[in-house]
Each structure stands twice: as structure tokens, then as C-alpha cells.
Design a protein that fits this description.
Length: 298
């Protein structure tokens, strides 16, 4: 694979996606920065990215993509392929945080969250895999979270969406290894991005009001997360290092965070247990991606 890669990123309007776009483009990679509504609500963000690309001669192309819409995902992937001929890396980054006591989350809110944080990656992966299979290489990257490995009260649905994403990404890594396609998971801890301002709160106040002291969990958790948040460029630098790690040498999981909380320990244990499971099913030799790879932070 050429060391300069073609990368498609979801949710590039702000936060991590925006930083990944700039960080990767500054290293000479071609970036398809996808976002919702670049001609409307994200017009200012799209214009800033285009201006930057022009000023610094960066290979960045802004494309429209709503990850909850099959046709929108397919259109953006087709447009990227038409322009660059191939996609080396798809970064599934689009997502948002839903905060509140689980009983107070309406079914509609839960469905919308899963449709973005989980089904969004299902759609993007299905769209890009056809092309990656043809080229016999590619990387599916999934921006999960520390909350994809541990559970925080008042973040249960967000955790569920990231746990689901982790399961999907891990299964993909086993199934695609033989085709030369890698699936990797990045687990950021808490970082300063617009994510906290974009948080959706559980809507059913009447249910929340029955909870006594536990009513305060969302405020306490959100306060702790935002007051300990790290500098988001750390995650962008980690993503760049992962993308530039040669094929076959990447790990399945990368935790990147201001505090470890024991997440690297969970990942190391999970790797050992998974290896036993694969061996028990007689699949160890067919899932070479795990072989000889340590789980650690980058
Ligand atoms: N910051 C943290 O502490 C942290 C920690 C762990 C994991 N993460 C994960 O990192 C990812 C990026 O979040 P962030 O922190 O960078 O926050 P952010 O600035 O709010 O970025 C979220 C991005 O997702 C996009 N998005 C939401 N729904 C979408 C949809 N249906 N289609 C396409 N794009 C959509 C948003 O686009 P719009 O502008 O159109 O709304 C925005 O660009 C998320 O998956 C989040 O769960 C964040």
C-alpha cells in the first residue's frame, strides 16, 4: 500500500473528525471529509475546511454524508471512489452522547442513538467493503470509547451503542483478516470536543423525577467528564500513527485517554479470552489478525 492513503471520515464537521481531517491531510494523505448538510447547517464548517485546504494545498474534499441514511452513505462513497479510485481507510467517527437515567430515555431516543452510533458504521462498512475487497486491502476504523468497555451510570444507552460497535468491529476483524482488510477500534477517554455541548438529554422528566438522589447522576457524571477532559489532538495523533502502521502490524484495540481506569487491562484480558474462544471453535488459524499482537495504548 502507498504510504499516502485515501481516507474517508464520517462526522468531520467538528471535534475529532475535523482534527483527523486536518492532521491526516497535513501528512499528505487524501481526505474525504464527510458531514451532514455541508450546504446548510454545516456550511460554515465546510467552508472553513475548504479554505484551509486551499490555503495550505491540502488534499481534502468535503462530501455530504448522513450516516443514518443508506442512500447518502452510498452516494458519498461512490463520489470518493469516482474521485480517488479507491478508499484505503474508512474512519467511523460520527456519533453523539446521550445522557440520563436509562428509564428516562424514550424508545425513539434509543433508536436514534443506535441508528447513528452503531448502524452508521454498519452502513459505511458495507458501502466501502465492496471496494476494499476488490483492492485486497483496507482499514475499517471505529471510533468507540472507553465507554465501549466500561459502564457509567446515566450513560447506559451510549455505552450500549459503543459496546455494540466494539462487537461488530471485532467480528469484522476475524472475518476479514484473510482478505487483507483490517478492522481496528480506537477507544478515546474523555476529550475536549463539542461532544458535551451536543449531548442529548433523556426526555422523560416524569420518570427521572421518581429517582431521588440518583437524579443527580447525569449532572455528576457529565461534570466529571468535562472537567477532566484531555486535549483532543492526542486522539488525532494516535489515529494518524495507527493509519501509518503497516498492514498486518496493527492491533485490534487502541485505548487513548487521559486516565487509564484499567482499560488496557480489560483489553489484554479480553484478548487472551478471545484467543481461547477462537481456539475452541477451531478458528484461531483463520483469524491471523490477532496472532502475536499485543494490546496496548499508542
Ligand atoms: N470527545 C470525547 O470525549 C469522546 C470520547 C470517546 C468517544 N468519542 C466519540 O468520538 C466521536 C466524535 O465525537 P466528538 O467528540 O468529536 O464530538 P462532536 O464534535 O460532537 O462530533 C460528532 C460528529 O458526529 C457528527 N454526526 C452526528 N450524527 C451524524 C449523522 N447522522 N451523520 C453524520 N454525522 C453525524 C456530527 O455532525 P453534525 O455537525 O452534523 O452534528 C459531528 O461532526 C463520536 O463517535 C463520539 O462518541 C468522543
Amino acid at each position: 500500500m502507498n504510504s499516502k492513503q485515501v481516507v474517508l471520515i464520517t462526522g468531520s464537521s467538528t471535534g475529532f473528525g475535523r482534527l483527523f481531517t486536518e492532521t491526516l491531510a497535513r501528512k499528505g494523505h487524501t481526505v474525504f471529509a464527510t458531514m451532514r448538510d455541508p450546504g446548510g447547517r454545516n456550511a460554515k464548517n465546510a467552508a472553513e475546511i475548504r479554505t484551509l485546504a486551499e490555503k495550505d494545498s491540502l488534499r481534502i474534499h468535503v462530501l455530504e454524508m448522513d450516516v443514518t441514511d443508506d442512500a447518502s452513505v452510498e452516494r458519498a462513497v461512490d463520489a470518493a471512489i469516482a474521485k480517488a479510485g479507491h478508499i484505503d481507510v474508512a474512519i467511523n467517527n460520527a456519533g453523539y452522547y446521550l445522557s440520563g437515567l436509562e428509564e428516562a430515555v424514550t424508545t425513539e431516543q434509543a433508536q436514534r442513538l443506535m441508528d447513528t452510533n452503531f448502524m452508521g458504521s454498519v452502513r459505511v462498512n458495507r458501502a466501502v467493503l465492496t471496494h476494499m475487497r476488490r483492492q485486497g486491502s483496507g482499514v475499517l476504523m471505529h471510533i468507540s470509547s472507553g465507554a465501549g468497555r466500561v459502564v457509567v451510570p446515566s450513560a447506559g444507552f451510549y455505552c450500549a451503542s459503543k459496546f455494540a460497535l466494539e462487537a461488530l468491529a471485532e467480528a469484522y476483524s476475524y472475518e476479514l483478516a484473510a482478505q487483507g482488510i483490517e478492522s481496528v477500534i480506537v477507544e478515546p477517554g474523555q476529550y475536549e470536543t463539542p461532544v458535551f455541548g451536543n449531548t442529548v438529554m433523556a426526555a422523560d422528566q416524569a420518570r427521572t423525577d421518581t429517582y431521588g438522589a440518583a437524579k443527580e447522576f447525569p449532572a455528576r457524571v457529565n461534570g466529571a467528564l468535562s472537567s477532566t477532559a484531555g486535549h483532543a489532538q492526542e486522539v488525532a495523533d494516535a489515529v494518524r500513527r495507527i493509519i501509518e502502521t503497516p498492514a498486518g502490524e496493527k492491533q485490534l484495540r487502541y485505548f487513548v485517554g487521559p486516565q487509564d481506569f484499567g482499560l488496557n487491562e480489560i483489553n489484554a484480558l479480553a484478548k487472551r479470552v478471545q484467543t481461547s474462544v477462537l481456539e475452541a471453535f477451531g478458528l484461531a488459524a483463520d483469524t491471523k489478525f490477532l496472532e502475536g499482537k499485543a494490546v496496548s495504548s499508542v
